[in-house]
Amino acid sequence: MTTTDAAGARKPRFRRRVGRTPVVLVLPAILALAFLVLPLAGLLIRAPWATLPQRLTDPQVLTALRLSLETSTLATILCLVLGVPLAWLLARVEFPGRRLVRALVTVPLVLPPVVGGLALLLVFGRRGLLGEWLDQAFGLTFAFTTKGVVLAEAFVAMPFLVIAVEGALRGADTRFEEAAATLGAGRWTTFRRVTLPLVAPGIAAGAVLCWARALGEFGATITFAGNFPGRTQTMPLAVYLTLEQDLDGAIVLSLILLVVSVVILAGLRDRWITAP
Fold first, then answer.
1. Crossing angle between the packed helical segments 247-267 and 23-46, to the nearest 10 degrees
2. Burial group, residue 164, by CB count within 10 angstroms (0-12, 13-18, 19+)
């Protein structure tokens, strides 16, 4: 099929032909979808809906939920304070070993969380490389405390923020920053007044993902901070402990985390899961 432009020239117009979907791809795709959805459906099917209101108001559930929300929020703030400058450094500054630094930043993504917790214990424990000095000099103790929960969550969640913000910085138009520099703005002023507004959506998305990862952290937390109700027992740890005694209670706690995950995905659907 052809079309005619303003000059009268005929241009071919191509249509994308959609062939028949091969069965050899459809069946594995359906199996993959079922594999991902059925376990979540199992939570909804087996949920004790009749006693759900009473279980949600249980003091242990509320304590674990409050602690999880507080520590994940504090961990996200810590990641923002430290991670945004790190992302800017990786995206805007050329320095020797930048690829190595970027690789080190992503290590917690693939590192088993229990190993991360052990590493934190060796560094920030009372006999750790820095922990002993911090305890003696400032009286700061991280291991097996609420502060340790925040530290463990920030360790595993910060790469999500750094990667998101670095990607936003690399995709931002640098001409605005260059224009600000030509008008006499310093680097700090340019960063604060130009760069941050440009990448604000990326920072927000990275912060939400960081918060979600911190909320669901288990391995590093239980290794570095322990599992003490009211002090270090977050929602994932409460699910693990409740599962040994009360299956319905563990399902209720899991439902809360599931709802949080769905809300986060719904909020980020335009940025992460919407396809053209």
1. 130
2. buried
Q: Which residues lie closer than 8 Å to 56 by C-beta, 6 or more apart?
A: 252, 256
Torsion of CA 122, 142, 131, 119, to 10 degrees: 20
Q: How many Cβ atoms from other residues are within 10 Å of residue 198's Cβ?
A: 17
| Mean pLDDT (whole number) for 54-79 | 91
Say whether 11 sits in a helix, a strand or coil. Answer: strand
Structure tokens at 231: 């002090």
- Classify residue 145 as exposed, middle or buried by CB count within 10 Å of its CB (0-12, 13-18, 19+): middle
Alpha helices in the chain (DSSP H): 23-46, 52-56, 59-92, 98-110, 113-124, 131-138, 146-171, 175-182, 187-190, 196-198, 200-215, 219-224, 235-243, 247-267
pLDDT, tens digit, 9 for 90 and up, residues 94-142: 889 989 999 999 999 999 999 999 999 999 998 889 989 998 889 889 9
pTM for the model stands at 0.82
Taking the C-alpha atoms of residue 242 and residue 58, their distance in angstroms, rounded to an integer, is: 13
DSSP state letter for 264: H
Closest CA to 187 of 177, 196, 173, 197: 177
Max mean pLDDT among 2-6, 75-79, 125-129, 244-248 falls in: 75-79
Angle at 239 (CA atoms; ends 267, 272), nearest 5 degrees: 20
Distance CA 43, CA 33 (A): 16
